[in-house]
Amino acid sequence: MFMRTPSERFEASITKDNLWIYILTLLKKKELYAYELNGKIEKEFKFSPGNVTAYIVLQRLKGEGYVKAAYRKKDGGPQRHYYSITEKGLAELKKAKAIYRKYARMF
User: Fold this and answer.
1) Rounded CA gap, 47 and 99, in Å?
2) pLDDT reported for residue 7
3) Would you list the DSSP string of 13-59?
4) Are strands 32-33 and 79-85 parallel, antiparallel or unpaired?
5) What range does the domain containing 24 cover?
């Protein structure tokens, strides 16, 4: 039976288990369409979420009002849903960053 080490569990809890923080952070910088998310997460944060996981989290964030979507064409490409962070999303991201800072001081 494979068991993750405590440090592996900790890393998962601050990355994949809280993917919403990374999605909101990216959307704070610029609007994105869903297909871009995994690549941006890998490039910016150096971990890879599951192929479908980012889409599921994005839809939950949208349903709860943390992000909004607009269907449009950009740079001559096909029409896509572009997502952006809302004021509610910005407020939640600010709370999350404060929590991280609070616990990071332990180390």
Assistant:
1) 21
2) 92
3) HHTGGGHHHHHHHHHHH--EEGGGHHHHHHHHHS----TTHHHHHHH
4) antiparallel
5) 10-104
Q: Which structure tokens are listed for 53?
A: 């996981």
Is the pLDDT at 1 greater than 80? The verdict is: no
One-letter amino acid at 105 equals R
Q: What is the CATH number of the domain that holds 99?
A: 1.10.10.10
Query: What does pLDDT average to over the chain?
Result: 91
Total number of domains in the chain: 1
Among candidates 67, 59, 62, 55, which has minimal Cα distance to 30?
Answer: 67
Residue pair 45/22 in contact (Cβ under 8 Å)? The answer is: yes
What is the pTM for the complete model shown?
Answer: 0.87
Cβ proximity of 56 and 63 under 8 Å? no
